[in-house]
Design brief:
About 35% of the residues lie in helices and about 10% in strands. The protein contains 13 helices and twelve strands. The strands form two sheets. The protein has a seven-stranded parallel sheet, with helices on both faces. The chain has a five-stranded parallel sheet with strand order 2-1-3-4-5, sandwiched between helices. The protein binds 2-keto-D-gluconic acid. The site of 2-keto-D-gluconic acid (8YV) has 10 residues, from loops.
Length: about 325
């Protein structure tokens, strides 16, 4: 396989963060790969310099690929994103600069769905609170009315966004927990996938009004930014909870804090935040909020599969084939 670039050298690839060792090994074997030694987050200036020095970037959600970065792309030809969401990449600027962008679909839906179920269970069954009490030595014994939560099975789950992750959550919830499923999505949901879980396609307002649990699984775009704002939170039931394993900016965080503080909704399970790694103090102060550090795809198996998928996109590109997961 010819992996040489036009200078006869192996393509230079900048890998912006530490990846599972199997992925780093493969990248080093196949490319002139610069791996991250210490996992530090690259600045925009670093990325601008990289766009001049490297043939390819393998960025993550922590790297903002801005118009300035693409404006400097004298050498850069492809950004093979480690992750399915490409909201951290200015796709118009990539297009204008002629830089190809790829992502890693199809390999992280199951793990992200597992974590979504974990958050649903944690919020309704008060798992975070219970764990904190036990660790603090404050558990004084079993009582029939102690730390009562709410049952998960049979609750109505509203899924916003019915791609791979939304469907994987729906399967778990419908088939494992007997939950009726409402689906709202930009495009009409896949009829076979909807039928398999006995789901009902509804508009967003109907979903917000009818679901006990609202879970976000749509991409972050200019249309979905702050999709869940004060007005939409007010459409949810007082006993309802919001789960977000997609992107923090889908939610107006101050409006969410206000809705939780006033008891307008009953709780939230959040794996993602608007300004990661900042988590607003208002959220941390509430016992009915479960917060996680963006762990959706965070298993050894899935992060390895994501890395291999990014690598497959780079390989295809540098042998002159169409990258399988091209976004731009
Ligand atoms: C990753 C994700 O943790 O794929 C995505 O869009 O949010 C997560 O799976 C992250 O993107 C890594 O770059």
């Amino acid at each position: 396989m010819d992996r040489e670039n036009t200078n006869g050298d192996r393509p230079r690839v900048l890998v912006t963060q530490r990846l599972p060792s199997a992925v780093e090994r493969e990248l080093s074997l196949r490319f002139a790969a610069d791996l991250s030694a210490d996992d530090h987050i690259l600045s925009e200036d670093d990325l601008v310099a990289a766009a001049r020095e490297y043939d390819a970037l393998l960025p993550t959600v922590t790297n903002r690929l801005t118009p300035r970065v693409f404006g400097a792309a004298t050498r850069l030809k492809i950004a093979a994103n480690f992750g399915v969401g490409v909201d951290s990449i200015d796709l118009d600027a990539a297009r204008a600069a002629g830089v190809i962008v790829t992502n890693t679909p199809g390999v992280l839906a199951e793990c992200t769905a597992d974590l979504t179920m974990a958050l649903i269970l944690a919020v309704l069954r008060r798992i975070g609170e219970g764990e904190r009490l036990v660790r603090a030595g404050q558990w004084t014994g079993w009582r029939p009315t102690y730390l009562l939560g709410r049952r998960v099975c049979g609750k109505t789950l509203g899924i916003i966004g019915f791609g791979g992750i939304g469907q994987a959550v729906a399967r778990r919830a419908a088939l494992g927990f007997g939950m009726p499923i409402l689906v709202s999505s930009r495009r009409p949901p896949d009829p076979a996938a909807l039928a398999a879980i006995g789901g009902t396609a509804v508009d967003l307002e109907t979903l917000l009004g009818g679901a006990d649990i609202v879970s976000l699984h749509c991409p972050l775009t200019s249309e979905t930014r702050r999709l869940i704002n004060a007005e939409r939170l007010a459409m949810m039931g007082r006993e309802a909870v919001l789960i977000n394993t997609a992107r923090g900016a889908l939610v107006d965080e101050p409006a969410l804090i206000a809705a939780l503080e006033s008891g307008r909704i009953a709780g939230a399970g959040l794996d993602v935040f608007d300004q990661e790694p900042l988590v607003p103090a208002g959220l941390l102060a509430m016992e009915n909020v479960v917060v996680l550090p963006h762990l959706g795809s965070g298993t050894e198996e899935t992060r390895t599969a994501m890395g291999m998928r990014a690598l497959a996109n780079l390989e295809a590109f540098f042998v002159g084939e169409a990258p399988p997961d091209r976004v731009v």
